[in-house]
Amino acid sequence: MKEILSTKNTMIKELKKLHKKKHREDNQEYMIEGFHLIEEAVKANAQIKWILFNQRGESEWSAWLNNQSQEQLIRVSDEVLESISELPTPQGMIAIIMMPTEEDIQLEGGWLLLDNVQDPGNVGTMIRTADAAGLSGVILGEGSSDIYNTKVLRAMQGSNYHLPVIRKPLVEMINKFKAAKIPVYGTELNPEAIAYQKLTGLDQYALIMGNEGQGVSSEILELTDETIYIPIRGAAESLNVAIAAGILMYHLELNK
Amino acid sequence: MKEILSTKNTMIKELKKLHKKKHREDNQEYMIEGFHLIEEAVKANAQIKWILFNQRGESEWSAWLNNQSQEQLIRVSDEVLESISELPTPQGMIAIIMMPTEEDIQLEGGWLLLDNVQDPGNVGTMIRTADAAGLSGVILGEGSSDIYNTKVLRAMQGSNYHLPVIRKPLVEMINKFKAAKIPVYGTELNPEAIAYQKLTGLDQYALIMGNEGQGVSSEILELTDETIYIPIRGAAESLNVAIAAGILMYHLELNK
Asked: What 3 state SS string does B202-242 have?
């Protein structure tokens, strides 16, 4: 087990750079905070590089820490933990995780595809809902938020370890779904589209949700088999995209 | 029409205090920013006290401003608008609205009741979804977030003007629903509760959503007629409360 007590330590300085997206992508690593998320990552066999903890973390989770590979553990001072943490109140434990390598995914069941969804909280919540509803995976198309920032990681509550979440160009993926004879549905605020309640009995599907302001882009909509919408019955102009995705995923999964 | 050019103006200093919850409640007034929300408020006959605009607001929305009561209008300098605004980029127009007085509400149709929902974004999104799904109103119980802070007002996108949103003790309201023979449903992460898909054909109902961490309190659950849950089929531990509310409200409203 290592021990680092100074915030000026070179390794600590390097780890802090993981708050930047570019550094995360260059190093293919990211940081998670708090025991709950770290426990989820370990359970899911994520590739853990380091687990840093201060005295509080060590006393609260000593039994769990004893069960981890000792070579991964780094005991740090409160100052070091605070200097790395992005939380107002650091939770005693931080882990550095290696990003998953490209998986051989199987196109079957239900898939959620995100076209340029920009709010990190929305992306994280949709991945968590896809996990809860029982979808097979999530594909992040061009423009969709990076999932390895702290806000998305917190909104996902570990769901990124439960189902594949893959960054891929949507056009390429839509063509693959079509080749596999899986129907591809766009979503649109357009009462002339198919009301979602009519879609039942779909064992397999790809569902595309779009940008918070503009919706799914017209180039992507043209490639879909059909467009569906959620009826708006009150005076609201639209639904939040994560709410709309939740309604659609639960409807499709529970009416297979 | 008034004109205020100095940030040291007494009235401007008073208006700034509306960023504080206590001052909003004492004065029964709140502030909204941006043309879209202000237009929604005017359309819905909200009680407008003042509309402040800078040169940009005046040039973009001159026709609309001409149609408003000139006694409500205050032309201000960019500095004044910036000093009042809570947005990183002020949008040229700010309005001061008087809070609605207690309405005589009619207990019919579907109602959403919030028990200690603390995240302002969640509360705002749930009110917007209740509006979209066609519910009759929303009741904010003890501990639920104030709806007149900027984040909730933005998440609601004007839905607070489309249906009654009332702050009332939940126990009192549950008793009123029961006296009116309207079934009251609690929600719980408990697979022994009734799966929500089984609830159909309900013309009237009260649906209670609970705190982000603890759910609906046990004292409130004891008062309900039944407890329902949303099946979790993947490995996620729970759903975000606003997502769960969206799934339930759309299911209940579209299966009346």
From this structure: CCCEEEEECECCCECCHHHHHHCCEEEECCCCCCCCCCCHH
Interface predicted TM-score of the whole assembly (ipTM), two decimals: 0.89
Taking the C-alpha atoms of residue B159 and residue B40, their distance in angstroms, rounded to an integer, is: 9
Q: How many CB atoms lie within 10 A of CB A253?
A: 20
Q: What are phi and psi of A80, to 5 degrees?
A: -65, -45
Q: Which of B240, B249, B253 to mutate to test the interface with A (most CBs of A within 10 A)?
A: B240
Report all structural domains of chain B as residue ranges with CATH numbers, in order of start: 2-98 (3.30.1330.30), 110-254 (3.40.1280.10)
**Cross-strand partners of A30:** A97
Give the whole-angstrom CA distance, residue B110 versus residue A131. Answer: 29
Q: What angle do CA B164, A243, A170 make, to 5 degrees?
A: 150
Whether chain A has a CB inside 8 Å of the CB on B200: the answer is no
B70 burial level (CB within 10 Å; 0-12, 13-18, 19+):
exposed
Contacts of A235 in chain B (CB under 8 A): 131, 159, 162-163
Taking the C-alpha atoms of residue B189 and residue A154, their distance in angstroms, rounded to an integer, is: 20
Report d(CA B130, CA A173) in Å as an integer. Answer: 34
Residues of chain A with C-beta less than 8 angstroms from the C-beta of B155:
240
pLDDT tens by residue, A204-240: 999 999 999 999 999 999 999 999 999 999 999 999 9
Joined together, the tokens standing for residue A206 give 């790809």
